[in-house]
Amino acid sequence: MNRAWTGLEKAPPGTLKNRIHGLGLRLLAQVKPSEIFFKSISKEVTNVEVTYPSSLGARLVRRRLRHIAMRGTIIHKKYFYGSVSLLPLTTAFTVLPLPNIPFFWVLFRTYSHWRALQGSEKLLQLVSDSSWTLNSATGNVNETEHDESRHGIHNSAKPTWVLLPSKELEQLLHRGDGHDGLSKCAISDICKVCDLNANDVMKYRDSM
């Protein structure tokens, strides 16, 4: 699949292969940022650090993150099996004297959903851990909670995720808050502070 894509990319402008490559780029642009995010979470990830506006409650942030991870596992598992079921059908296009674009696209989507499923399951595993640490904006640990402590169960292991309330992020959010949500300027400022891709964040906002 990678060799076929490279061949399309190197095709001379104006050729059929070059147009197919352009179509592929437009299709790739439709992939949701959440899927790209889940794919970036490998099995080697051992902890999660979350920076959030200081006005939000830590428990709310944790529940929201667990919801995102759980929703990702459900969605990508469904699309993974759906893509797998389409693979045998797209092999019929191999009789054509052109690259089997439907097969390569479905194969890519199958792999992509599988990677996203693995990432979302890993994230869910990490944020479902009983131990967590709440840090102040300065990075000093000032609180540690265990969900099981009320039942007499204590986990002394190193927390798998850390919550970092940020006053700076809170100020940026209020500065750019409008009737239609955050402005592009506010999102751009937040992305600079948090080292994020502004285009991906805008794309994610528009997909919600």
From TrEMBL:
One of its GO terms (biological process) is potassium ion transport. PANTHER family: K+-H+ EXCHANGE-LIKE PROTEIN (PTHR28062), TRANSMEMBRANE PROTEIN (PTHR28062:SF1). It comes from the Eukaryota. The chain crosses the membrane at residues 86-108. InterPro entries: Mit_KHE1. Keywords: Membrane, Transmembrane, Transmembrane helix. The keyword Methyltransferase does not apply. This is Uncharacterized protein. One of its GO terms (cellular component) is mitochondrial inner membrane. It holds the Pfam family Mit_KHE1. It comes from Carpinus fangiana.
